[in-house]
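ligand=7PM
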Amino acid sequence: MLPGLSSNRCQVMGILNVTPDSFSDGGRYIQVRDAVEQGLKLVAEGADVIDVGGESTRPGATPVSVMEEIDRVVPVIAALSKAVSVPISVDTSKPEVMRPAVAAGACMINDVRALRLPGALEAAAALGVPVCLMHMQGEPATMQCNAHYKSDVVGEVMDFLAQRLAACRAAGLDEQKLMIDPGFGFGKELPHNLSLLAGLDRLKTLNRPILVGVSRKSMLGQILGQRPAAGRQAASVAAALWAAVHGAAMVRVHDVAPTVDALRVWQALAAVRARAEP
Ligand code: 7PM
C-alpha cells in the first residue's frame, strides 16, 4: 500500500535533490548521471524509499518553472526506477510534474503543499498513488519571516492536516494511501519545531502514518549554537531516532547509513521489551 510500510519498523526515506546548487553544474546529462549515482548510494546504505525533488523549497528560494522541474526529476526517476527495486517518491506540488513523474516510475507523491495547488488534488486522485501531505505555514519565499501560531502549534498543525485529509477524501483519494507530516522548518521557529517534535505522539490520533523530516535542518543548528549544516549529522540521527520512538513511520534523511544503524539498535531493544511485556 504505502511504500515500505507493510512492515512495522520505521522506514528510511533517502533525500535526492536534483537542483543546480546540489549537483555539479556541468549540464543536464552530468546532473542526471550524478543524481542517479547518489540515488544508488542511498539504496546501498539501506534507504527504503528515495525521494526525488527538483524544486528547492529552501526558505527564500526562487520558484522553479514546470518545464525546469520536469526536466530535472523525470530523467532521474526514469533511470533510477529501472536500476533499483525500492520505491521512488517525487517531491513536488505541481500536478503537471506529478503526472510525468508517476509515468516515469515514481510510486508516491511527497507534497510540501499538501495538494493545495490548483489541480493537484485531482491529479493525485487520478494517479491513485500514495501521497504525503505536509503542513507549511506560508510559502517558501516568506515562510520564515512571520511564523505565527495562537498557542498550541501541535493542535493547529493537526487541524490543518485533518482538513487536508478531509479534502483528499472528498476528492476521491483513498485515505489508506495518505501519510501526514508536520513539516519541520516550514513556517516554524525553533520553539514551534521543538513543540512539534516533543509532541509528535499526538499526531498519531489522526490515524495515518507520520513522516518526519528534520535532517540537517536549521532547528538542529540552533539547538547546537548556530552549528552549520555540515556538522549536524549526529543531531540529525538523534532527532530521527526520537521521531521513530515517538511514532514516525518514516524519516526523511540525507545521512541514510547512520540513521539505519541507529534505528537497528532501537529495534533490537524494542524487540526485547516486546517479548518481556506482551
Ligand atoms: C533547504 C532547506 C533545502 C530545507 C531543502 C529543505 C521536507 C520535505 C523538504 C519535510 C517532507 C529539506 C528541505 N523538507 N518533505 N521536503 N517533509 N515530506 O531539508 O520535512 O530537505 S525540503
